[in-house]
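2024-03-11 09:14:02 INFO worker-7 job=invfold-0412 stage=load source=structure_tokens
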């Protein structure tokens, strides 16, 4: 037995035979024609690749479809096309030119500081190699599985997973990759155990061999011994029993042992996430970020946004869905949008500041949200609001959007609650004033900690200064709870990671009565809260949940 240590990308356990998916550039035997013909070949190949992606889009929904749309946008990007055509006109063949441009563009993306954008390099390679396959007259390789297997690859492209028979995938292991890559995100959505960054030595001896994959620890065992197989079998049976127990628990209201009701919501990215959350017992969506549409390059048009948001609201089946307006800034680069060079992006034109600085883009966004609001129970939250002046500016923008929709005679949601995302100490300190106009508060403890302690949470060099439990953040949160109580304004805290999950009891004891978290944490959170007692006396004073 050999053990390889990778990085967990999707929780779960898998045991089975390994099948290797190879991404092999053809290269050999290419005949280079004159530049004019190579250019015609390239343009024709792009059209063919776009048609392939459009066909796949029709077979997929939600985030999967968005990924395919983003890849189509990549192939139609004028900058990329100019790069390819430059190499062709210099005498290179079309296929080699696409490979070279793809490598350069992917390298540029991987050099960015933003984690989300850095992992989009894989989408560039995936899209461009589809064009290369057309030019080489080679069908896109699809691994044919006749029995369930664990899939291994140097790096998995999103379309690798989307073209496989999902019922045949036991687990995923890659030599490289990242937990933030689209393939990893898809794996988590599908509930497939996955490990990334297992190393190239792993690939050399894995094909056809029995393996055991631990998506919790990142360990991969090739040729597992009997003890390891028995341990995995026991753990898999135990998790199945826990799942059956969770199925019974998910429909039970969450109450502490002394009867305090706590509402549990889910953090989601698309309609598939929303459906999964509702099925897992979520009482709604506590936070759905809208900027994924821009970051993925799927377009900022009103029609595209209406379709996306309507899908998400419909998937919630009448439960409340809180959608954040664009939280775009200089540290989140969105293709095709104006960007300013800023020395300190986290303190620059981010959140609502970006929206108010781009009124045309913001009006389109608000119109799309209001139109989609007819499909479900919409609530809008505003990130990085620090004072009533900013909140008033947003309310004026919403009024303009409504007037625009009336002029166009388009139906829209009339009474949409608008809340404030408490991201900064300033927002917490001004909570009493903001409570006069905010319909609800959503608190982001991670952002509060970043600004309260002056630590960039994405900077690996200062992570030792980023607190997992923060007394200043607790004081700021208590200010928000106290400010919200006179008007009975709902307060929801986003528990985005295991650390905030562990602090749930602290939040509830402060008076918070609504928590939002990844879907996978809903049942563990419910079990934790239902086993605790706030005190033995009267029920704790608290705030109502959003509804």
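2024-03-11 09:14:09 INFO worker-7 stage=emit residues=547
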């Amino acid at each position: 037995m050999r053990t390889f240590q990778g990085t967990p990308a999707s929780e779960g356990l898998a045991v089975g035979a390994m099948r290797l998916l190879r991404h092999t550039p053809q290269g050999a035997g290419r005949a280079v024609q004159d530049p004019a013909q190579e250019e015609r070949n390239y343009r024709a190949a792009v059209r063919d690749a776009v048609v392939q992606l459009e066909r796949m889009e029709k077979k997929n929904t939600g985030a999967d479809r968005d990924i395919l749309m983003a890849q189509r946008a990549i192939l139609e990007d004028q900058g990329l096309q100019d790069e390819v055509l430059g190499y062709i006109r210099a005498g290179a063949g079309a296929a080699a030119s696409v490979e070279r441009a793809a490598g350069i563009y992917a390298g540029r993306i991987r050099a960015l500081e933003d984690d989300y954008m850095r992992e989009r390099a894989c989408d560039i390679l995936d899209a461009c190699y589809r064009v290369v396959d057309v030019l080489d007259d080679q069908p896109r390789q699809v691994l044919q599985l006749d029995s369930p297997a664990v899939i291994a690859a140097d790096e998995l492209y999103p379309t690798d997973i989307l073209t496989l028979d999902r019922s045949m995938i036991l687990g995923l292991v890659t030599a490289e990759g990242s937990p933030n890559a689209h393939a990893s995100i898809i794996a988590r959505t599908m509930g497939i155990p996955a490990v990334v960054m297992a190393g190239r030595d792993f690939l050399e001896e894995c094909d056809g061999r029995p393996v055991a994959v631990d998506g919790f620890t990142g360990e991969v065992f090739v040729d597992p011994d009997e003890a390891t197989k028995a341990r995995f079998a026991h753990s898999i049976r135990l998790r199945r029993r826990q799942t059956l127990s969770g199925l019974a628990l998910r429909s039970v209201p969450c109450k502490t042992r002394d009867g305090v009701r706590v509402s549990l919501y889910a953090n989601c990215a698309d309609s598939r996430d929303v459906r999964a959350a509702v099925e897992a017992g979520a009482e709604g969506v506590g936070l759905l970020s809208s900027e994924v549409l821009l970051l993925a390059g799927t377009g900022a048009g009103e029609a595209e946004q209406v379709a996306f948001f309507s899908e998400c609201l419909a998937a919630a089946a009448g439960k409340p869905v809180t959608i954040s307006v664009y939280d775009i800034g200089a540290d989140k680069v969105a293709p095709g949008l104006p960007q300013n060079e800023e020395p300190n992006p986290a303190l620059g034109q981010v959140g609502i500041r970006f929206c108010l600085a781009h009124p045309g883009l913001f009006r389109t966004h608000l119109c799309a949200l209001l139109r989609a609001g007819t499909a479900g129970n919409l609530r809008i939250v505003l990130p990085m609001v620090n004072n009533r002046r900013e909140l008033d500016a947003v309310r004026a923008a919403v009024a303009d959007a409504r007037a625009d929709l009336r002029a166009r005679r388009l139906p829209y949601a009339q009474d949409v609650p608008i809340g404030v995302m408490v991201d900064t100490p300033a927002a917490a300190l001004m909570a009493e004033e903001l409570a006069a106009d905010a319909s609800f508060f959503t608190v982001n403890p991670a952002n509060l900690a970043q600004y309260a302690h002056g630590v960039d949470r994405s900077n690996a060099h200062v992570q030792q200064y980023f607190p997992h439990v923060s007394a200043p953040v607790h004081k700021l949160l208590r200010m928000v709870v106290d400010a919200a109580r006179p008007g009975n304004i709902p307060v929801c805290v986003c528990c985005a990671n295991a650390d905030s999950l562990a602090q749930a009891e602290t939040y509830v004891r402060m008076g918070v009565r609504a928590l939002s978290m990844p879907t996978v944490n809903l049942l563990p959170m419910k079990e934790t809260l239902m086993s605790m007692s706030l005190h033995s006396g009267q029920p704790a004073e608290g705030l109502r949940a959003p509804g």
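2024-03-11 09:14:09 INFO worker-7 stage=report msg="The chain is about 45% helix and 15% strand."
2024-03-11 09:14:10 INFO worker-7 job finished
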